[in-house]
């Protein structure tokens, strides 16, 4: 997939020990992957800054899982999720944001992470099929031509979601792998039936 996790945002505290600063992590994430900042801004646009809704949390957790799957430690993945929430302008202490992420997902449980990535993929597929995640012109074209054809941003979002789910799925073994695949098949079939 061409993605390798690189820990970012380290700085030295007053004792000379390395420490993580979410502001520094946000800055580095924005440079490494500007799409994350754009998506985070779009998801959080108009939402209150003193709470976190399901879509915002889902996106933050998805980014954290992506970091974990591509080599981040549990701590670094947690910090990545917290940094994404902070990138959205959420007005919580860094430690509170990290606790929110820890409460949502177990970064040592690859089956749980695969299920969470699948939930995000289902949401993405639903939005893309309705034109809501596709961009104005693409969504408008789908409404007027009735083709049911996914192109552009909608198709790209689905491809990215599948790639992220597969990266998580690839870490599973045995029955957990079979269970995750069967769940993926069921979810895709349900999404397609609802869409078309």
Strand content: under 5%
How helix-rich are the residues, as a percent range?
Answer: 55-70%
Number of domains: 2
Give the tally of β-strands. Answer: 2
The shape, in one word, is globular
Poorly predicted ranges? none
N→C terminal distance: 29 Å
Widest sheet, order of strands: 1-2
Radius of gyration: 18 Å
Q: Structural class, from helix and strand content? A: mainly alpha
Report the major sheet. 2 strands, antiparallel
SS summary, helix count: 9
Describe it for me?
- This protein is mainly alpha-helical and about 200 residues long.
- It has two domains: about 100 residues, no CATH class; about 90 residues.
- Helices cover about 70% and strands about 5% of the residues.
- The protein contains nine helices and two strands, in the order E-E-H-H-H-H-H-H-H-H-H.
- The protein has a two-stranded antiparallel ribbon with strand order 1-2.
- Helix 1 crosses helix 4.
- The longest helix is centred in the last third of the chain and has 22 residues.
- The radius of gyration is 18 Å and the shape is globular.
- The protein starts with 9 loop residues before the first strand and ends with a helix.
- The model has no long low-confidence stretch (mean pLDDT about 80).
List the helices and strands and how they pair.
Elements lengths: L9 E3 L5 E3 L1 H11 L1 H11 L9 H16 L4 H14 L6 H11 L5 H21 L5 H10 L6 H18 L4 H22 L1
Antiparallel strand pairs: 1-2
Helix pairs in contact: 1-2, 1-4, 2-3, 3-4, 3-6, 4-5, 6-8, 6-9
């Amino acid at each position: 997939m061409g993605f390798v996790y690189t820990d970012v945002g380290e700085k030295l505290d007053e004792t000379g020990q390395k420490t993580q600063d979410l502001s520094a992590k946000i800055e580095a994430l924005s440079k490494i992957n500007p799409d994350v900042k754009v998506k985070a801004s779009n998801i959080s646009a108009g939402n209150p800054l003193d709470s976190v809704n399901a879509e915002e949390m889902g996106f933050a957790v998805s980014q954290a899982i992506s970091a974990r799957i591509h080599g981040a430690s549990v701590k670094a993945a947690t910090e990545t999720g917290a940094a994404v929430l902070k990138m959205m302008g959420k007005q919580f202490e860094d430690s509170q944001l990290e606790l929110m992420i820890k409460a949502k997902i177990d970064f040592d449980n690859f089956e749980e992470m695969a299920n969470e990535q699948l939930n995000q993929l289902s949401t993405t597929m639903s939005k893309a099929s309705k034109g809501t995640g596709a961009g104005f012109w693409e969504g408008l074209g789908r409404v007027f031509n009735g083709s049911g054809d996914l192109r552009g941003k909608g198709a790209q979002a689905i491809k990215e979601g599948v790639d992220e789910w597969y990266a998580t799925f690839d870490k599973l073994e045995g029955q957990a792998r079979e269970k995750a695949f069967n769940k993926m098949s069921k979810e895709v079939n349900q999404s397609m039936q609802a869409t078309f």
